[in-house]
Amino acid sequence: MPIRILPDELVDQIAAGEVIERPASIVKELAENALDAGATHIEIDVERGGIQLVRVRDDGGGIAAAELPMALARHATSKIAGLDDLASITTLGFRGEALPAIASVSRLRIVSRVADAAHAAEINADGGALGTVRPAAHPSGTTVEVRDLFFNVPARRKFVRSDATELTHVVRLVERLALARFDVSFRLRHGGRGLLDAPATGAAGDLARLEMVLGQEFPAAAVAVRHGAGPVMLSGWAGLPTRSRAQPDQQFWFVNGRSVRDRLLMNAVRLAYRDVLYHGRHAAYVLYLTLDPKLVDVNAHPAKLEVRFRDSRQIHEFVFRALERALAESRPNLGAVAVAGSAPTDLPALAARASRLPLEPGARDPWAIVAALKQPVEPPALPGASSSAEEQPLGTALAQLHGAYILAQNRDGLVLVDMHAAHERVLYERFKAQRESGTPASQHLLEPLVIELKAHELSALLERGEEWEQAGFELEALSSTRLAMRRVPASMRPAEASGIVTALVHDLGLEANTHHLDGAADRFLGALACRSAIHAHRRLTLPEMDSLLRQMEATERANQCNHGRPTWTRLSLQQLDQLFLRGR
Question: Which fold has domain 364-584?
Answer without folding.
Answer: formyl-coa transferase, domain 3 (3.30.1540)
